[in-house]
Design a protein that fits this description.
Layout lengths: L7 E4 L5 H12 L3 E6 L3 H13 L4 E5 L5 H15 L4 E4 L14 H23 L7 E6 L13 H21 L4 E8 L2 E2 L10 H6 L7 E2 H12 L10 E4 L6
Parallel strand pairs: 1-2, 1-4, 2-3, 4-5, 5-6, 6-9, 7-8
Helix pairs in contact: 1-2, 1-7, 3-4, 4-5
Length: about 250
């Protein structure tokens, strides 16, 4: 399980949920790990300390993904602290839902800033440090990019669908530089923000083919595959890890 030995990974929004699961899995496979957080300093440091206890280096950096300068500085700090940057996981996101008529400009702006601009900004900053070849950029999308089963998802669905175009465009641009770019679309996943025992969980799980929520570790496993040597020939892809939600 040392396929990522010697690699350095940065996960945005890595203090909980899928982001934390990705951080743990990449560290388990040998990577030193940097994670960003906005407000959850205690939880982010707990993740970092758990990774350190496993024998890997880890760092938690505060950065609001809506702030391009702060995000770029976090990427540069990761590379400067550990001497390189090989893997970027664009995980941080916000989830604003509601009727079109009620959506405020501030909600629209923040959703697009965090869910669309931030992955592009972080990718731009990260690729400067991926000069050895073999770099990996992996973004976390959503099953609702293709199937919005409830009203009120238009803004969020739009923001995640934008990542498809970004992934394809960057894959074509960065392929000659030895960097792959991929997108993982999780289905309903058991996290604090969307618990498998929540009020609408039974209905949501019923939209999948397997009839259940994913564990965050199941999403992280696909990210780890794309980040490792076995994922070297995969780029420009949108991979659904959604239990058949979009089947």
């Amino acid at each position: 399980m040392n396929r990522l030995e010697g690699k350095v990974a940065l996960i945005t929004g890595g203090s909980r949920g899928i982001g934390a699961a990705v951080a743990f899995r990449l560290a388990e496979e040998g990577a030193d790990t940097v994670l960003t957080y906005e407000n959850s300093a205690e939880r982010a440091n707990e993740v970092a300390e758990r990774i350190k206890a496993s024998g890997r280096r880890a760092l938690a950096v505060r950065a609001d993904s809506a702030d391009p300068e702060a995000l770029t500085a976090a990427v540069d700090e990761a590379a400067a602290t550990f001497g390189r940057l090989d893997i970027l996981v664009n995980n941080a996101g916000v989830f604003h839902v509601g009727p079109l008529d009620d959506m405020e400009p501030a909600e629209i702006d923040r959703t697009l800033a965090v869910n669309v601009r931030a992955p592009f900004t972080a990718s731009k900053a990260a690729v400067r440090h991926m000069d050895r070849g073999g770099g990996r950029i992996i973004s976390i999308g959503s099953n609702v990019a293709e199937r919005a089963v409830f009203p009120g998802l238009a803004l969020y669905s739009m923001s995640k669908t934008a990542l498809v175009g970004m992934t394809k465009g960057l894959a074509r641009e960065l392929g000659p530089r030895g960097v792959t770019v991929n997108l993982v679309h999780p289905g309903p996943t058991d996290t604090d923000a969307n618990p498998a025992d929540g009020p609408n969980a039974e209905t949501i799980a019923g939209f999948t083919a397997v009839g259940r929520y994913a564990e965050a570790a199941e999403i992280a496993a696909t990210v780890a595959h794309l980040a490792g040597p076995d994922g070297a020939y995969i780029t420009g892809a949108s991979i659904h890890v959604d239990g058949g939600f979009t089947a």
